[in-house]
TrEMBL record:
One of its GO terms (molecular function) is phosphate ion binding. Residues 1-19 form the signal peptide. GO terms for biological process: phosphate ion transmembrane transport. Coiled coil: none annotated. This is Phosphate-binding protein.
Length: 347
């Protein structure tokens, strides 16, 4: 796995221009911490090629959408697609499209224990507050040979509006009728137990520093920090470890034209069950707030490049799953509906 610990300490990353090329355009975005390692790495590759400076704030999906709504950034990034109500609340029409997919892993901190199996029922019961100690018989039953300590489980969740939370709680609603009826899913929920961490870096940090901690985090953060994580029993009854192959399997299937799809609890027997796409959101008409045509063109060219093989290869290098060719084609068609003064920016 690539070492990307640097990202865990950064709330705001600026891809500095070290190129001799002249380009005064600067772009900004905010949102998902789930996908921040991919974006910052790709932006650092893009800037020397074009001279376009790009800043990205990993502030969480909810805050990213708000920043776009307030028109203080050029793009928002979210691991939860926008609902009809959210789109209606924006000051102007937006477009959204996925850029890659990834896995949400269940990470834990138990000295001497590096592997663990979890069923959907046990996982839900931990987050419902029904299983509170690591020595619970339900955990021992599915993990023969593992000696769990007599230690309270410190449940960790996100404290901010989070697309990672959206993916995780969407999964819980599919496997636990009780969770679905009491708490539902979204970027924020009324957690019955646990402590909050801000962003994926905050949750990963809390888990790594707290003996007995257990929480959900985007896989890249667990890989980078070498935090152990569990295999999850999928819909086919197979315990699956999060990996490139098992996350890819979760993303198989037809993408709807509006790209709004959740891929948790996949029926594919090879699929890891807690996975999701991540989206970028732009205003469909780019001539607003005195934005120049050059800004709009730079923004669209950036995201067109992010869908190309060079950028998608960056995603795979740091443990995300690139988009299938059919989804790339759909995304590019969406980008070409974005206009400046009513005229398409990309041909």
């Amino acid at each position: 796995m690539k070492k990307i610990g640097l990202f865990l300490a950064l709330a705001l990353v600026i891809a500095s221009c070290h190129s001799g090329k002249k380009n005064s355009v600067a772009l900004s975005g905010a949102g998902s911490t789930f996908v921040m390692p991919f974006y910052t790495t790709a932006f650092q590759k893009y800037t020397p090629l074009t001279g376009v400076k790009i800043s990205y704030g990993g502030v969480g999906s909810g805050a990213g959408i708000k920043s776009l709504k307030d028109r203080v950034v050029d793009f928002g990034a979210s691991d939860a697609f926008m609902t009809d109500a959210q789109m209606a609340a924006m000051p102007a029409p937006v477009v959204e499209f996925p850029t890659c997919s990834g896995a949400v892993v269940m990470a834990f901190n138990l000295p001497g224990i590096t592997t663990m199996k979890l069923t959907p029922e046990v996982l839900a019961d931990i987050y419902l507050g029904k299983i509170t100690n690591w020595n619970d018989p339900a955990l021992a039953k599915i993990n023969p040979g593992v000696k769990f300590p007599n230690l309270p489980i410190t449940v960790v969740h996100r404290s901010d509006g989070s697309g990672t939370t959206n993916i995780f709680t969407n999964y819980l609603t599919k496997v636990s009728p009780e969770w679905k009826s009491k708490y539902g899913f979204g970027t924020t929920v009324n957690w019955p137990v646990g402590v909050g961490g801000k962003g994926n870096p905050g949750v990963a940090g809390t888990i790594s520093q707290t003996t007995g901690a257990f929480g959900y985090v985007e896989s890249t953060y667990a890989f980078a920090e070498k935090i152990p994580f569990a295999s999850i029993k999928n819909q086919a009854g197979i315990f699956i470890t999060p990996s490139f192959a098992s996350t890819s399997a979760a993303g198989k299937g037809q993408m709807p034209q509006d790209t709004r799809i959740m891929i948790t609890d996949s029926p594919d027997s090879a699929a890891y069950p807690i996975a999701g796409f991540t989206w970028v959101i732009l205003y469909k008409e780019q001539h607003y707030n005195n934005r120049t045509l050059a800004q709009a063109q730079a923004l669209l060219k950036l995201w067109d490049w992010m869908l190309d093989p060079d950028a998608q290869a960056v995603a795979q290098q740091i443990d995300y799953v690139p988009l299938p060719a059919s989804v790339v084609a759909l995304d590019k068609s969406i980008l070409r509906t974005v206009t400046y003064d009513g005229k398409p920016i990309l041909q």
